Amino acid sequence: MEKIVESVWMAMIVAVILGFVLRKVNSWMFERKLGEKKYSLPPGDLGWPFVGNMWSFLRAFKSSDPDSFISTFFIRYGRTGIYKAFLFGKPSIIVTSPETCRRVLTDDENFQLGWPASTIELIGKKSFISISYEEHKRLRKLTSAPINGHEALSMYIPYIEDTVKSALQRWARMGELEFLTAVRRLTFRIIMHIFLSSESEQVMESLERDYSALNYGIRAMAINVPGFAYHKALKARKRLVAIFQSIVDARRRKKGGEGETKKDMMDALMEAEDEHGKKLSDEEIIDLLVMYLNAGHESSGHTIMWATVLLQQHPEFLKKAKAEQELIVKNRPSTQERLTLKEIRQMEYLSKVIDETLRWLTFSFVTFREAKADVNVNGYTIPKGWKVLTWFRSVHLDPAIYPEPMEFDPSRWDDYIPKAGTFIPFGAGSRLCPGNDLAKLEISIFLHYFLLDYRLERTNPNCRTRYLPHRRPMDNCLARIRRTSSHGEEC
Question: Which domain of life is it from (predicted)?
Answer without folding.
Answer: Eukaryota
